[in-house]
Amino acid sequence: MALSTIPFSGLGADASNQGVNFRNLIINGDMSIAQRGTSFSPTGDAYVLDRFKLDYAGSPAVRYTITQDTDVPTGQGFAKSMKFDVTTAEASPSATTRLWTRLEGQNLQQLKYGTSNAESLTLSFWVKSNLTGTFIFWLYQEDGSNRSISKSYTINSANTWEKKTITIDGDTSGQIDNDNGSALRVVWFLTADQSAYGTSSLQTSWGSYDSTAVATGQTNVGSSTSNEWYITGIQLEVGTSASDFEFLPYDVNLQRCMRYYQLLIDGDDQSFENFTSYNGASIYSSHRFNVTEMRAAPTGITSNNTNDFAFYSESNAHFAPTLSFSNIYEKGSWIYCTMTSSVTHGSALFGKGNASTALCAFDAEL
């Protein structure tokens, strides 16, 4: 078996039997995984569909509703896309909005950046908008070199899915660290303040970051509340040509996303592992993450509403408004809380979400 087709250890699906070799450097490029939800109306920086983040550079007035949508290119195998619907317009952008995903350095060593053998990359994706014109894609190298390259693509026909292919030369100067940190930022501009990001000619070759040359000529998606922008089928691969999109089994795709974010409780009746009473109202549970390791020791996230969580012992219900976390590392965490009533020391308790607002998650995003 070739090294490139060895399936992920511990995953339920044998990806090698389905012609998968993980050539796509982008995770969740088909927009199928949505652990955080399927609709968002952020007023600032926010992760949306898994591995993708909306970034507000400065303080733009434009706002979007971002959804996991079923409008997809016909006959290409996709079931989901990401849709940006402008809800507050800004005719002349005073700041910048963009969609990005970040890639770990240890997953990019095959690019050989910083050497004369640096590999070219080819990006392909499907895009749709009611707008036509020039749009900007940007790669930014984050490992101390602060190097970047921008490329333009054109949407030719309104309200029509179009496949775009962009080839990027290898960077012979900027080395990528072999670690779990963010090494490469992959960015699509939606709006760009041209006075800050577009006063120079677009920088279409690798070079030191120059903010004035990053997004020159970007069409303003945020110009009207009638505007929409969709994307799906994102693939970034080594080489100078685009191959067909690499569809992963759903469980494999989900496991890859869980390295960065895991949702444990999201609403009513979703259950925890068992808890044990440590001292009256204080209870603890040892939680193992649903992947071998998360990217780094994550941050525990919890809601904070009265009676969000319920715990049951000897047919009695006990409630807690929030959770706490300790001893968090890449493989697991302690979860503990103080309930509103006490139980006998050493008692076992069953716990669950007790309201639609109940949330427990772990975040190790780049």
Q: How many β-strands, per DSSP?
A: 23
Tell me the helix content. Answer: under 10%
Strand arrangement, major sheet: 2-3-6-11-8-9-12
- CATH class descriptor of the largest domain: Mainly Beta
Mean pLDDT: 93
Order of helices and strands: EEEEEEEEEEEHEEHEEEEEEEEEE
Distance between the amino and carboxyl termini:
32 Å
CATH superfamily of the largest domain: Galactose-binding domain-like
Sum up the overall morphology in one term. Answer: globular
Integer tally of domains = 2
Q: Examine the coordinates and then state which fold CATH places here, giving the name of the CATH topology of the largest domain.
A: Jelly Rolls
Low-confidence runs of at least 5 consecutive residues = 1-18
Architecture per CATH nomenclature, i.e. the level-2 architecture of the largest domain = Sandwich
Name the beta content range: 35-45%
Structural class: mainly beta
Write the layout of secondary structure elements.
Elements: E1 39-40, E2 46-47, E3 53-57, E4 63-69, E5 81-88, E6 96-104, E7 121-129, E8 133-141, E9 147-155, E10 162-168, E11 182-191, H1 194-197, E12 207-208, E13 228-238, H2 250-258, E14 261-266, E15 275-279, E16 282-288, E17 299-302, E18 309-313, E19 316-320, E20 324-329, E21 332-338, E22 348-353, E23 359-363
Antiparallel strand pairs: 1-4, 2-3, 3-6, 4-5, 5-13, 6-11, 7-10, 7-13, 8-9, 8-11, 9-12, 14-23, 15-16, 15-22, 16-21, 17-23, 18-19, 18-22, 20-21
Can you characterise this structure?
With 366 residues, this protein is mainly beta. The chain has helices spanning 194-197, 250-258, and strands at 39-40, 46-47, 53-57, 63-69, 81-88, 96-104, 121-129, 133-141, 147-155, 162-168, 182-191, 207-208, 228-238, 261-266, 275-279, 282-288, 299-302, 309-313, 316-320, 324-329, 332-338, 348-353, 359-363. Strands 2-3-6-11-8-9-12 form a seven-stranded antiparallel beta sheet, with no helix packed on it. Strands 19-18-22-15-16-21-20 form a seven-stranded antiparallel beta sheet, with no helix packed on it. The chain has a six-stranded antiparallel beta sheet with strand order 1-4-5-13-7-10, with no helix packed on it. A hairpin with a 2-residue loop joins strand 15 (275-279) and strand 16.
